[in-house]
Write a structure and sequence with these properties.
about 290 residues, extended, six-stranded mixed β-sheet, 60s Ribosomal Protein L30, Chain: A, 9 helices, about 50% helix
Length: about 290
Amino acid sequence: MARKGKKKHHEEEAGEAWLLPYSDLMTLLLAIFIVLFAASKMDQGKSEALAEAFRQNIVEDGGGGMLSNDGESIINLYPGTPITEPSTGDGDSEGVGDGTMDGTSNSEGAREALYELLGQQEVDNLEDVQAQLEDMFQQENIDTSISSRIDERGLVISLDNAILFDSGSANLKQENEDTLLKIASTISSLDNYIRIEGHTDDRPIHTAVYPSNWELSTARAASVVKLFRDSGGISPAKMVAVGYAEFKPVADNSTEEGRAKNRRIDIIILSQRYDSLEEQIGDIQSIDNTN
């Protein structure tokens, strides 16, 4: 009888042992359900479109911008283009990526490639704006300091930092603000989002105001955005300011000529492809702010 009692007691202990892993499993399943439920609150279509847009940007542009220790910040939206910094934190600009059309050599091959990417109507519209800007640049005798091109991001207007800022400064030169305002008057009626990018060469800057080229390039882009908002008639909701420092060069930083080209401000009239991405990001931020 004693042996039978011991056997019964052993079976009772073994029968209760499954409760602990079972409760752990149920807790895990509950956690997974909560995560899936929370994720389902985001619109599925927007989520997939945003993921696809980011995927294309990473594959085609080779990644995003980085920070430099020089004093300017850079964000790369130009596929196939390098980036550099300014000698003392200045930013001139001039760079061309693969598959682009500039103001003087819109080859048929490049145009056909852009038709495939953007659609003929959008390319034609961007070319019309580009032609208006090129005429204005020539009339103002500033066409040597400003260039334009069309790539899959849209219409890119590049301005030498030297005509906009003093070395190591993000304050716009008042004598050249009029040039920026004339650009603003040409593009203010467009519905496209506008991205203002600051770029530098690879020479570091270390000041109390601008510890690196990230801060300098971002501050310069923000100065242009503020001018467009305050005096250019462009809605701030349609603009974004970004800085890439020296990490998106368009020329070789080993020469002074190359560094000068890398110090630049790029004003980008975003194509529908990138325009939609900006809008989706804004929608997601609005959802986050209401939750």
